[in-house]
Amino acid sequence: MSRMTDFVSGVSGGRRYIALGITVYLLLTILIGWWWSSEPDLVSVEDVVQRQAQVPLDEAPVGVATTASLVEIATVLLDKPGGYLTNDIFPPGVWLDNMPSWEFGVLVQLRDLSRVMRKDLSRSQSQSQEDVSLKIAEPQFHFDNNSWALPATESEYRGGIKAVRNYLERLADKSTPDAQFYARADNLSAWLSEVENRLGGLSRRLSESVGRPALNLGLAGDSNAQQSTQGVGYKESKTPWLEIDNVFYEARGTAWALIVILRAMEHDFEGVLRDKNALVSLRQIRLELEATQAQVWSPMILNGSGFGMLANHSLTMSSYMSRASASIIDLRNLIQQG
Question: Do residues 207 and 314 lie in contact, with contact meaning Cβ atoms separated by under 8 Å?
C-alpha cells in the first residue's frame, strides 16, 4: 500500500514540476516577445554618418548621409533586439506579427531607396554606367523576405549591406572618383514619387479599417482611356479585422525608415532645396511622419468607428500619412516648377 502511495505521490510531483516548467517557459517567452516587439529609436543624421561612414557630417561628401542612412536602416532591420523576425519558425518569434509588419514597412523603403540609388542617384544620365556595388545590392534587398534557410533572408540582406558599404567607402574617399552621388532636383523628385505612391496606398489601407465606399477612378480624365477588363464601378473596401494591427505597424515601420532617410536627404540636397525655396516643405513632411512614432499606450490597436466612443488608431495614423503624402505632392511641384 505504501509503495502505491509513493508511486502516486511521485507522479503527482512530476506533473507539478512539468506544469511549473511550462509556466516558467511561457512567462519567459512572453517577456522575450515583449522585448523583441519594442521598436528601435530614431537617430540623428550626425550619429548615422559617424557610425556608418566614420567621418563627421560636416566633412562628408555629398551623398554620404543618404547612403549611410540606407546602411543604417538595413543594419537595424537585422540587428535590433530579436534580430530579423519575419522568417522565424520558433517561439516567441513565430507568435509575433506586429514586428514582422514593422519590418516589412522598413524593407519596402529600403528596397525603394536602393533602386533609386542604382538607377538615378549614382548615375549622371540615363546612358551612364551603373555603380558596380549598387548593381549587386539592389537585387540582394529584393530577395524573398520570408526565407528561413537555403539561403536565409538575413544572409542575402547582409550581402546587400556589404555591397552598399563598399559604395559608401568609395563615396566618402575624396581621392576615389569612381563612386558618385548626384544631388539633383530630378533625382530627388524621382525618389519622392516612389514615397508618394507608398504613403498613398498605406493611407488608403489604414482608412479602410472602418470600411469606406470607393468609385473606380482608373479612367478618369481621359475619354479615350481603356483598361484590360471591366472594373467594378462601386464597392466598399474594408480591412479584415485580423489585419488591422498589421497595416498599422507596417505604416509605423515605413514612417520610421522615411524619417531616417529624410534627415539625411535634407543634408545632401540642402542646396537644391534652398534654391527651390523648398527646405521648409521637406521639413514639414518629416514632422508629419515623426508624429506617427508617438508611444502607443493602448495594449492593442483599437478600431472604433470614425465618430464612435472608442479610438481608432488606424484613422489617426492615416491622417498623418495623408498629410505627409499631400506635402510630398506640394514639394514635388516646387522642385519641378520652382
Answer: yes
